[in-house]
Design brief:
This protein is mainly β. It has helices at residues 387-395, 421-426; strands at residues 10-12, 23-25, 31-34, 55-60, 71-76, 88-90, 110-113, 129-137, 142-151, 158-162, 166-180, 183-187, 191-195, 201-217, 241-244, 247-249, 255-261, 264-270, 277-282, 287-290, 311-316, 323-335, 352-359, 374-377, 401-413, 418-419. It folds into 2 domains: 84-275 and 285-291, Jelly Rolls (Sandwich); 294-436, Sandwich (Jelly Rolls). Strands 2, 8, 9, 11, 12, 13, 14, 15, 20 and 26 form a 10-stranded antiparallel β-sheet that branches. Strands 7-24-23-25-22-21 form a 6-stranded antiparallel β-sheet, with no helix packed on it. Strand 8 (129-137) and strand 9 form a beta hairpin.
């Protein structure tokens, strides 16, 4: 079934009309989908002969013996060994990988940036990636990197996959389309997309210019957090995640495939599109999620709970209770706590916190933290409200107040985040950000009973 909304020549599996058109709902499910009837074998994974002359191939995201293996069986026109040739190294100088420590950059500090301007240079998903911070070590599959992406044109006969990481994409302006081996995902601001390690895709610009944020996860894949006493409902519900139905291209054209491997980039040339998976089944796939479906929970009597209650996705580490990465969302919500300081309190944290503003005003920093901007509060560095937010939070009437028209997020990791040279010298760093605490006053009065 060919849709006029898809790239010319791409065939997609039929799906039910309605809110899930083009997608399959659910998180981590074992899905099955086929773009041609009967292309998906039943009762076994690797028959002696596949329908339509297809090749059976498995894509594994975990070790075979993992507690819950993540893998997908693909039925494709050519095996993927035909989608690469001899490799040549190429340079993408703005995309950095941990361990990366710029010798003349001080990462110890509280930093904030204005939005990185798109500019007038033609930029694709690859040439427009700008690394802001790195953490951990890609060679040990621990840690992450944070990036800004700037896209002004589509990738044409060009494809990419990362052997290093899965990518969490957070659009802030413009709309993108990810044409992947397993189907098509469209994303816009207030949505996110996850692109698994090893999955081949092409990025098209649907509406631009496009700008957004990327968390590159070197470690275990993102999963839903354990809700603990919260119980079975609220936060991000599995039914709101969507994976694409099968879609494929049977197209002969000189094509460039770029691969990221251990922080280095390589290109290879083939004579056809590698997006040739006609059918697939499994639990290792790209997916998207609408952040507006996130149901926050919070204090309904007193005190300000930990920001962990706002976790959308978490990538676990080997240490229980300490994430490799948490993806945290601050969206519209009611503030109702009585006789309490409602904004985020001052704190010093073992986790490193990189924040981005999708739209609106953040209650702890009502000035200077603008949509498209970022901030970094590295591990064990104190931070918290500026004076205006403190004074307001200390004196505001204790009546219900809705934080409205706002959406920010945080990439939080147990590793220190190191600034790149781009973040320190080329990105629009707010040199005066640290001064936002200068006007905080000493209010101490030793008189008994004085508040």
């Amino acid at each position: 079934m060919t849709s006029h909304n898809l790239p010319q020549g791409m065939v997609r599996a039929p799906s039910q009309p309605g809110p899930h058109e083009g997608y399959i709902p659910g998180f981590g499910n074992d899905f099955e989908t086929e773009a041609l009837p009967g292309a998906l074998p039943q009762g076994q994974n690797s028959p002696q002969k596949c329908a339509y002359g297809l090749y059976a191939e498995q894509l594994s995201g975990t070790a075979f013996t993992a507690t819950r293996p993540e893998r997908t069986w693909c039925y494709r026109i050519r095996p993927s060994v035909k989608h690469t040739g001899r490799f040549e190294k190429i340079a993408l100088p703005y995309w950095k990988t941990a361990p990366h420590v710029a010798g003349d950059v001080i990462s110890l500090g509280q930093y904030r940036w204005d939005p990185v301007p798109v500019g007038g240079t033609p930029l694709t998903w690859l040439t427009g990636m700008r690394t802001m911070t790195t953490a951990g070590d890609v060679n040990t599959q621990l840690g992450m990197a944070s990036h800004i992406y700037l896209v002004t044109r589509s990738m044409e006969d060009e494809y990419f996959y990362s052997a290093d990481s899965e990518l969490l994409v957070v659009p802030q302006e413009g709309r993108l389309r990810f044409c992947t081996e397993l189907g098509v995902i469209d994303v816009a601001p207030r949505e996110i997309a996850i692109l698994p390690r090893g999955l081949v895709y092409r990025v098209e610009l649907l509406e631009g210019p496009a700008r957004g944020f990327v968390c590159e996860n070197y470690g275990q894949t993102f999963e839903l957090p354990c809700r603990g006493p919260i119980g079975a409902n609220c936060l991000a519900n599995p039914r709101d995640f969507k994976s694409p139905v099968a879609a494929f291209e049977d197209r002969d054209a000189p094509s460039r495939v770029v691969i990221k491997w251990c922080g280095q980039f390589h290109e290879t040339w083939i004579d056809h599109s590698p997006l040739d998976v006609v059918a697939w089944h499994g639990n290792y796939a790209a997916y998207k999620y609408d952040l507006r479906t996130y149901s926050p929970v919070g204090a309904i009597l007193f005190d300000h709970p930990d920001p962990s209650i706002f976790t959308v996705l978490t990538a676990p580490s080997g240490q229980p209770g300490t994430a490799n990465i948490d993806f945290v969302l601050f969206r519209e919500r009611w503030m109702v706590a009585e006789h309490s300081f409602r904004p985020p309190w001052y704190h010093k944290n073992i986790m490193s916190e990189l924040m981005g503003n999708i739209h609106g005003i953040y209650d702890a920093k009502p000035k200077g933290f603008v949509p498209g901007g970022m901030s970094l509060h590295n591990m064990m560095l104190p931070h918290g409200p500026d004076r205006g937010a403190f004074e307001h939070g200390s004196t505001a009437p204790m009546v219900p107040v809705k934080q409205d028209n706002t959406m920010q997020f945080m990439f939080e990791t147990r590793f220190p985040q190191h600034l790149t040279t781009f973040a320190a010298t080329e990105a629009p760093l707010q040199d005066d950000y640290i001064d936002c605490w200068d006007s905080l006053e000493k209010k101490f009065d030793g008189t008994p009973g004085v508040k």
